Amino acid sequence: MHPKYSFVIPVYNEEDTLREMYRRISAVMDRMDGLVELILVNDGSRDRTLSLLRDLHEKDSRLCYLSLARNFGHQIAVTAGLNFIRGQAIVVLDADLQDPPELIPLLVEKWKQGYQIVYAQRTQRRKESWVKRLPAYVFYRLLRRLADIDIPPDTGDFCLMDRQVVDVLNKMPERNRYIRGLRSWVGLQQTSIPYERDPRFAGEVKYTFRKSLSLAADGLVSFSKLPLRLSTYVGLLAALVAMLMAVLVFYWRIVAPTSPLTGFATIMIAIFFLGAVQLVSIGILGEYVGRIYEEVKGRPLYVLSEVAGFNDARSSLNDQG
Ligand code: UDP
Ligand code: MG
Fold it and tell me: Of 18, 137, 229, 261, whose CB neighbour count within 10 A is largest?
């Protein structure tokens, strides 16, 4: 029998949170009005996470897991989980209990009203430090202005998606997966539920500053061509400034031949300014070209090393990526 709901949770070095997470989420699973499968995706953890997953699977057959051959990153881990779902409504959440599982029935209620995507929108991040909050705040506003599609601010990956949406996501071949954006790109009926994001239950944050930065760049580059156009604008502006300066120098040469403004300093400033503009433009271009390079290589998105709990053809390790 196929489950009605699939919960997908990526885990990376979460030995401290797994048991509590399982306790809280299985309480929610027991109260659902249909069969639930819990898909845990081990993203190349280096602690006891995998053996804990094996134990939990022994005890509870609703819990299935995938193990990736190394750390492929959060977005890819979620993608792997979505490739394996069998339910009709799919919920994605974090393992660290920052996304309260108790909210799931509310998401499901909206789904039953006919929404295909129900995302949980953070109202408060009081319990997180401003070092995380401020860049996040700025980024989501920037993304909203730049992106070609409407990506709602302050939403993470915590959401419910209808099977129809996940089928579309699974057909998307791209490697630079900014799931929050791809999800909005699909369209259909979307709605949100506000919630307060709790602090991490235990362990350290797995999203280092570098990983967050690269996720932010993925989001911007995948959903906006505006940065590319920006270099054109700045280039045009620089050309205008250069023309003005040429006129000014011409004027000074004729009217005030002894003016100090035509000297060394002016030239240095101009050289540095133009150099900076060019380097930044090349950098922006590089962000796009680098991603094109990643895409054309067409490597599989992930490699599996262990799969348990899926009693159909997909359990075969050869059928991956
Ligand atoms: N995670 C993952 N791979 C990674 C980093 C994180 O699967 O390379 C998982 C992690 O186990 C957690 C979720 O992604 O379930 C969110 O990570 P974290 O709580 O560290 O990030 P934040 O709360 O800052 O979004
Ligand atoms: Mg977290």
Answer: 18
